[in-house]
Amino acid sequence: MSQTYDLVVIGAGSGGVRAARVAANLGAKVAIIEEYRVGGTCVIRGCVPKKLFVYASRFTDMFSIAESFGWQVDVKFDWPTLVANKDKEIARLEAAYVAGLEKPGVEIIRDRGELVDANTIRLVNSGTEIKTRFVLVATGGHPYVPDIPGKEHGITSNEAFHLKRLPHSILIEGGGYIAVEFATIFAGLGVQTTINYRGNQILRGFDADVRTGLEAGLEARGIKLIYETTIRSLKRHDEDITVEFSDGTTAPYGAVMFATGRRANIHGLGLDKAGVKLTPDNYIEVDAYSKTSVDNIYAVGDVTGRAALTPVAIREGQAFAETLFGGKPTAVDLSLLPTAVFAEPEVGVIGLTEEEALTGHPDLEVYLTRFRPMMNTLSTRSDRVMMKLITAANGGKVLGVHIVGPSAAEMIQLVAIPMAMGATKADFDRAIAVHPTAAEELVTFKAPSYSYKGGVKQ
User: Fold this and answer.
1) Could you tell me which of 96, 11, 107 has the C-alpha nearest to residue 317?
2) Bridge partner residues of 231 (DSSP)
3) Which among 366, 349, 336 has a CA at the least distance from the CA of 408?
4) What integer pLDDT is reported at residue 163 of this predicted model?
5) Residue 90 near residue 49 (C-beta atoms within 8 A)
C-alpha cells in the first residue's frame, strides 16, 4: 500500500466507485477505502436485491391471470431459494465492481477511513495514515429507526434481505417509496401486510393522482393502510411482536419493519477535524461541483442530501472526476429527475406535479387517462393504468409526466429524453403511436381533460 495519493475516496458505493475509476483512467493515483463490501447500498442492500424481490413477488399476479390465457398452474414458493439466488447475483455484481476498479489501477483498501486533517486519512483498523491531494467522501446513508421502546425488535430494509424465513404478517412503518415497495414484495409473497403511516396518504410529494392510483392498487392486493398514527412501542411475545400505536391500540405482527427515512453516514469520519461544514439536516454541505467548505475535500451521493438516487450519485462521481482530473469543470443538473417506485402497480414520474406546475404556470393543460392494461382484459382483474401529462397551455412545453401501471419505470426513462430537450405537447403529438401498447396513450391525447387559466380550473 502506498502512502501518498492524488485522490482517496472514502466509500465504495455507486458514486465513489465511478469517481475512483474515472479519475484513475484520467491518470490519477487513486485509492478507495471501504469497510464493508464494494458496491454500496444499491448493489448490496438496496435497489438491485429489492428489484429482484419485486420480480419474485409479481409472479403471484401472473399466476392469477394465467388460466385466462389457457394455462393450468400449480406452483409453490420457496423463500430460501430466492435469498440464495439473490446472494449469488450480488456476489457476481460485487466482483464486477472490484474488477472495474482494479483494471485502471485503483487500490482498494479494506478498512475504515477517518480524516485526521484535510490531507491525511487514518485507517482505523490498521492504524496506518495515508496522505492525499484530494478527498472524496461517498459514504452514503443508512436507515433511520425511531427511538422508541423495543425498537430492537424491528427490522429495516437492510435486514429484510436476509430473513431466515418469511413472517406470517408484517407491519411496515412509513409511507415513502421504500415502504410501498417492500409492502408489494411481502404481500406478493403471501405475507399479510400492513402499512402504517403518520400522514394522510402514501408517497408525500408525488402527484395526487399518482398517490391515489397506487393507494388503490395496494389495497386491491390486500395491503392494509393505516393513516395518521405512529408506533409508540414494540414488545416481543413468543414469535410475534406486539405493536402499541400512538392512538393507544395494540396488535400483534410476525415482523415490524421501519421504512422511516434514511440518514447520512457522517459519524466517525473526522469531518470536524478537517473543518467540513454540515447542513442543518446533518448532510455534508457542497457546492454545484460537489466541493465542501474545505477546498480539497469533496462529497457526492446520498451523504450530501441532494437527491438520494443511485444514478445521481454516479453522475456526480463522474462530474467530480472530470472537474478535478479531466480539465472539464462539470456541474450536475438536478432540475429534471426521472423517478420510479417499484411497487405494484409500478410508478414512473418526471417533472412537476400538478400542484407544483400551477405555482409557476397559471395557464395549464392536463391530460389524464385511466384504462385496464391489455394483459388483464381476458381476466377478471380490474387494475387500472393511469397516465397524466401536464403541459403549458396551447400545446406548450411538457412540464410533468406521471404513470402508474406496468412498465411505468421503463416508459418514464424514455420520456426523460424528450423532456430534457424541452419537448412540447406538439412534439409528442407528432410521434406515431406503437399499437397496441400502453405507452401510445402519451402521444395520442387529443384534448385536455381539464385546464387552468390564471390558476383557476376550467
Assistant:
1) 11
2) 245
3) 349
4) 96
5) yes
Query: What pLDDT does residue 341 have?
Result: 97
In contact, 362 and 392? CB cutoff 8 Å: no
Cell of 118: 484535510
433: number of CA atoms within 13 Å, CB side? 13
How many other C-beta atoms are found inside a 10 Å radius of the C-beta of residue 437? 12
Bridge-partner residues for 237, per DSSP? Answer: 240
Give me the residue label for grid cell 410533468. 400
Instruction: Kindly state the cell numbers that stand for 222.
Output: 390486500
| Torsion angle in degrees (nearest 10) through CA of 343, 48, 338, 409 | -50
Three-class DSSP category at 447: coil
Sign of CA dihedral 225, 226, 230, 234: negative
Using CB atoms within 10 A of its CB, is residue 226 exposed (0-12), middle (13-18) or buried (19+)?
Answer: middle
Nearest partner of 8 among 373, 297, 362, judged by Cα: 297
Is 435 annotated as catalytic? yes
**pLDDT at residue 442 above 80?**
yes
Q: Residue 312: count other Cβ atoms within 10 Å of its Cβ.
A: 20
Residues 217 and 383 sit within 8 Å (Cβ to Cβ)? yes
Span 53-102, pLDDT tens digits: 999 999 999 999 999 999 999 999 999 999 999 999 999 999 999 999 99
Question: CA-to-CA distance for 173 and 196, rounded, in angstroms?
Answer: 5
- 408/217 Cα distance (integer angstroms): 14
CB 285 within 8 A of CB 293: yes
* C-alpha distances in Å from residue 220, one per residue of 172, 213, 364: 17, 11, 32
Q: For the chain, first and last CA: distance in Å?
A: 69
Secondary structure in 3-state letters for 41-93: HHHHHCHHHHHHHHHHHHHHHHHHHHHHHCCCCCCCCCHHHHHHHHHHHHHHH
Among the listed residues 153, 361, 402, 435, the single catalytic one is 435
Beta bridge partners of 141: 264
Question: What would the grid cell of residue 93 be?
Answer: 455484481
The DSSP call for residue 127 is: -
Phi, psi of 336 (to 5 degrees): -140, 95
433 DSSP assignment: P
Per DSSP, 241 falls in state: E
State the pTM of this model: 0.95
What count of residues does the chain have?
458
Which whole-number Å values give the CA distances from 98 to 87, 106, 386, in the listed order? Answer: 16, 9, 41
Q: Which three three-digit cell numbers place residue 450?
A: 381539464
Taking each continuous run of H as one helix and of E as one strand, the counts in the chain are 12, 23
Amino acid 373 reads P
Helix, coil or strand: residue 456:
strand
